[in-house]
Structure formats: structure tokens, C-alpha cells
Amino acid sequence: MLSKSMQEALNNQVRLEASSSQAYLAMASWAEIQPGLDGVAEYFFLQSEEERVHMLKLMRFVNERGGFAVVPVLQQPNITFKSLKSMFEDFLNGEIAVSNSINELVDLALKEKDYATHNFLQWYVSEQIEEEKSARILNEKLELIGEDKSGLYLFDRDIMATRQRGGRDGHKK
Ligand code: OFO
């Protein structure tokens, strides 16, 4: 059975995963209407779906353990970006914030001696290592490319391959 504080903290994570899903959906939509960013758009559509899966996994766990998973109210995410680079910076910052939040949850699970939740959260710990790594690599690539148009062409063409390498949860394609 989940404690009240653990249930609240997990529901907070549900909200964060849902917000990430919406944020990436907005990135996908913005990228889709820019010339030549089809690969980036595809990347964020899939990323958005994946965050929804993360949210669902948490909700099912909360309910399974005798809690009540709350469908969250969400704020509208950023829907426009001043550049591709700034969008990817938002992506990395979002992932760092999620990792920090997962770490706090792990901390709470240990404090409460809730080993079932601690065990469940290890999947998210590993997932965040992968996601932060991918976001960092993509930011580094964009930094190298700068304004070079052929570099940006290749970045867009190859971005899906970074998902294939990073896939560990069966959702990355
Ligand atoms: Fe939910 O995986 Fe990153 O944010």
C-alpha cells in the first residue's frame, strides 16, 4: 500500500510525464511546419508517445498499489521556438528536470522503506540516463553544425538513428 506522501509524489510524476508528452508534441508540430525538419518532427512525435507510455506505467502502478492515479490538469507547453537549437536546449533541460524529479522519488522511497516503489522506479532511473544522453548528444551535434545547411540536412536525416541506438524500452523505433 502506498503512503499518502508517496501517492502524491507519484501523481506529481504522472503530471510531469504528461507535460513532457505535451511539450514534445508541441515540438513535433512546430518542426513539422518548418522546411526540411521532417526527421526532427518524427523524432518528437515518437518521443511524445513514449512519455505518454511513461505516464501510463506510473498510473497503473499507483492504482495497483492501492492508490488513486489522478489524470492531471496541464498547462499549455511552449508551442513556438526561436530556433532549432533553442528547442533542443528545452528538450535537454526538460529531461534533466525529469531526472531530478525521479531522483527525489527514489529518495522518498528509501526514506519510507517502500522497496516495491523503489524497485519500480529503477526502470525510470535507467530510462533517464538514456534520454539525457540522447538529448545531450543531439545538442552537441547542433552546436558543431552551427548554421551549416548541409550539416542540418544530415542532422535531420540521421536523427531517427539516434533513437535506434538508444532504444532500451521497446518503444524507441
Ligand atoms: Fe519520461 O522519459 Fe524522459 O522525460
CATH class: Mainly Alpha
The total count of helices amounts to 5
CATH homology superfamily name = Ferritin, core subunit, four-helix bundle
Instruction: List the secondary-structure elements in sequence, H or E.
Output: HHHHH
Strand content: under 5%
Query: Low-confidence segments, ≥5 residues, pLDDT <50?
Result: 166-171
- What's the CATH topology name? Ferritin
The small molecules bound here are: hydroxy diiron-OXO moiety
Envelope shape: elongated
Cα(first) to Cα(last) distance is 35 Å
Helix content: over 70%
CATH structural architecture: Up-down Bundle
How big is the Rg?
17 Å
Count of the domains: 1
Number of strands: 0
Describe what you observe in this structure.
- The model is unreliable at 166-171 (pLDDT under 50).
- The chain has 173 residues and is mainly alpha-helical.
- Helix 1 (4-32) packs antiparallel against helix 3.
- The chain has one domain: Up-down Bundle (Ferritin), CATH 1.20.1260.
- It has 5 helices and no strands.
- Hydroxy diiron-OXO moiety is lined by residues 17, 20, 51, 54, 95, 98, 127-128, 131.
Topology:
Elements: H1 4-32, H2 38-64, H3 84-111, H4 115-145, H5 149-166
Helix pairs in contact: 1-2, 1-3, 2-5, 3-4, 4-5
This protein binds hydroxy diiron-OXO moiety.
Residues 17, 20, 51, 54, 95, 98, 127-128, 131 line the site of hydroxy diiron-OXO moiety (OFO).
